[in-house]
Specification:
The complex is a heterodimer. By secondary structure, chain A is mostly beta strands. In chain A, the strands form 2 sheets. In chain A, strands 2, 4, 5, 6, 9, 10 and 11 form a 7-stranded mixed beta sheet that branches. In chain A, strands 1-3-8-7 form a 4-stranded antiparallel beta sheet, with no helix packed on it. Chain A is built from no helices and 11 strands. Helix content of chain A is 0%, strand content 49%. In chain A, a hairpin with a 6-residue loop joins strand 5 (44-49) and strand 6 (56-57). In chain B, strands 2, 4, 5, 9, 10 and 11 form a 6-stranded mixed beta sheet that branches. Classes of the chains: A mainly beta, B mainly beta. The A-B interface holds A 4, 40-45, 48, 58-59, 90, 97-99, 101-107 and B 4, 30-31, 33, 35, 41-45, 48, 50, 87, 89, 91, 95-102.
Chain lengths: 113, 109
């Protein structure tokens, strides 16, 4: 049972570089989410998707873009990385948006120098 | 604004009982979740409350009072492996999860 898989697990970037974080889920979930987790703060929602081909902004979307071309994949892009984007990024998925819990990937630890 | 408050850190003894509190002020309420997160790992789902009262699941129980904006997670017969952060999250009127910063629980032998 793979669940939610994130790649890469670690990455170091220089300011201004771009990269894409990949998330794949094999549970046929409609909903997918990208969060960032910073010390002393709760998880903050960056972007989310309620189904294939849809995306929506969360609490902290600036500097990030996403795409959901296939139901099982949700990509998070950083066009021009900034040190403030140094964080741990978690992808999650859920069957619905009400009572069903979100299932998380193992995270991507991203450092921007 | 929306706010979820949890103690930053708690310490308990192996074999004992600990209660982790969570208070919330959100725009609407559509359920409350508790997650466990070991250091360097992903959050994993523990419990869900949408109605007032106690939900029991083995050694873990979760309580909700919607009128007080309050929940707690009760962990019994503590084991060393319970050392982790415990995250409280509330689903608001837009069905988005609002997360607390988490409570780091330290278990001592």
């Amino acid at each position: 049972n793979a669940g939610v898989t994130q790649t890469p697990k670690f990455r170091v970037l220089k300011t201004g570089q771009s990269m894409t974080l990949l998330c794949a889920q094999d549970m046929n979930h409609e909903y997918m989410y990208w969060y960032r987790q910073d010390p002393g703060m709760g998880l903050r929602l960056i972007h989310y998707s309620v189904g294939e081909g849809t995306t929506a902004k969360g609490e902290v979307p600036d500097g990030y873009n996403v795409s959901r071309l296939k139901k099982q994949n949700f990509l998070l892009g950083l066009e021009s990385a900034a040190p403030s984007q140094t964080s741990v990024y978690f992808c999650a998925s859920s069957l619905d948006s009400s009572s069903q819990p979100q299932h998380f990937g193992d995270g991507t630890r991203l450092s921007i120098l | 604004g929306q706010n979820i408050d949890q103690p930053t850190e708690m310490t308990a003894t192996e074999g004992a009982i600990v209660q982790i509190n969570c208070t919330y002020q959100t725009s609407g309420f559509n359920g409350l979740f508790w997650y466990q997160q070991h250091a360097g790992e992903a959050p994993t789902f523990l419990s869900y409350n949408v109605l007032d009262g106690l939900e029991e699941k083995g050694r873990f129980s979760s309580f909700l009072s919607r009128s007080k904006g309050y929940s707690y997670l009760l962990l019994k017969e503590l084991q060393m492996k319970d050392s982790a952060s415990y995250l409280c999250a509330v689903r608001d009127s837009n069905y988005q999860l609002i997360w607390g910063a988490g409570t780091k629980l330290i278990i001592k032998p």
